[in-house]
Amino acid sequence: MADTKREIERKYEGPATESGADGLPDLGGVPGVAAVVDRGVTELDATYYDTRDQRLAAASLTLRRRTGGADAGWHLKLPVSDGVRDEIRAPLSDTVPRALSGLVRSRVRDTELVPLVRLLSARDVRHLVDGSGALLAEVSLDRVRAERLDGGGGTATWTEIEVELADGGDPAFLDKVEKRLRKAGLHRSAAPSKLAKALAETGERAGRRGHEQAGKGGHPSKPGLVTDPASGTDPASGTDPVTAGDHVLAHLRAQRDAIVELDPDVRRDVPDSVHSMRVATRRLRGTFGSYAKILDPAVTGPIGDELKWLAGELGVDRDREVLTERLTQALGDLPRALVVGPVRARLRTWAHARHGGSRRRLLAVLDGRRYLALLSALDALVTDPPLLRAAAGDPERVIGKAVRKDFVKVSDLVAQALDGEPGTDRDLALHEARKKAKRTRYAAETALPALGAPAAGLTKAMKGLQGLLGDHQDSVMTREALRELAALAHAAGESSFTYGLLYGREEQRAAAVEAALPEAWRATLEQASV
Hints:
Blueprint: E1 3-13, E2 35-50, H1 55-58, E3 62-67, E4 73-81, E5 84-90, H2 98-101, H3 105-108, E6 114-129, E7 135-148, E8 155-165, H4 172-183, E9 187-188, H5 194-202, H6 208-212, H7 244-267, H8 273-290, H9 297-333, H10 343-366, H11 369-383, H12 395-419, H13 424-451, H14 453-491, H15 497-527
Antiparallel strand pairs: 1-5, 1-8, 1-9, 2-3, 2-6, 3-4, 4-5, 6-7, 7-8
Helix pairs in contact: 7-8, 7-11, 7-13, 8-9, 8-13, 9-10, 9-11, 9-14, 12-13, 13-14, 14-15
């Protein structure tokens, strides 16, 4: 069984000409600190595991087995932001616990995890407490000896100071401590972690081959790739794209990295992680379809099929989240007198059963051979891309043409939906228009660095259209769920009145979207210019 702790900490060392700090400075004068409590010295013995080509280190992940101290056991540290990591803990065992090995599988794949470095630390600990005795931060002076275990026998020693914020503490307090440490001649450590420093000082720098061999799952994580799909910088080389192919490949690498990076969060059921991974798979598929003149469809087609499969598996859980949230909100909006029977209890039971089943299925997918093969196929695609002749062309011309072609398809589908009669056929037409609007939005995001303002306008327009049509599709799915819930309630001898009432309200919401669509589409045409 594993548990998670959010770590907010900073590391410090002495001047570059020294080996490190000789001791802890007096921190009693830090604002807010009423006392500095000596907690004594603890001997720590930690062995760090990684692949031989250091894929975890390349992604700033650390996996260790440590004895000594109050938290002896296995620890996996996942970066969250600068100075913030999630530490996932599991009890001591002779081998890497399955609860942790799964969380690094998207990086490691089938490669063996081996011991790379052993760190022996004498940790001198002080607690900074306030006037009530509550812990503000733990400050430790670590005297470290590193031993390389994967050949060469290199060693290194150093001293550093670590300041870890207490659980629930105000991060601004760390600034106050840092001000005092700087006055004492200390500065932030250049190395992000003890492992990084150990690898650098006892052998090759971490991740050299991981950076070179993206095809083996070692491509380093790049913060912001999930939330900045329009970045104009190639994450593999750090250079600005020149050709149309450069722009498309930069986008592909970003989405491949997003899937790999989100894998541990999906396994941990982190909020919105499933949705974010699903979006990354759709962006990839959309790129294959929109830019078929740049990337050979004979190669991308089978990969696109597998991405569609993965998005479907991810959608089982995501659809449950959307429906549960929508139904809960709808129930909350009803007057108490209109909620007849144990409706809320039945919704909770229904949502929990669906969630439990979908979670088990999704975890099995992520542990399966098919998913790992897909990750390897994506690595191979971005390492040796199947570029066609148009890839060498001018980005504004080639990419602009592809985006305009997608927009024409959206226009045709919206016109078809507007011409149809209300009912199932129109619902299906609106759903197809929504999917095409989403693909066009993704294509426009890819085109932003090349096309600038026109692509930005189209992205905004398609996002608005997608939202409107998405609300319509959510209504269709919610009505299906309400029919299911009503049938379950009826079979249990419960009233189905409230479900029917909610169903009628959902019909009204869908009709309102359909009524608003013509004007919304006219506004979209004015906003979109590519």
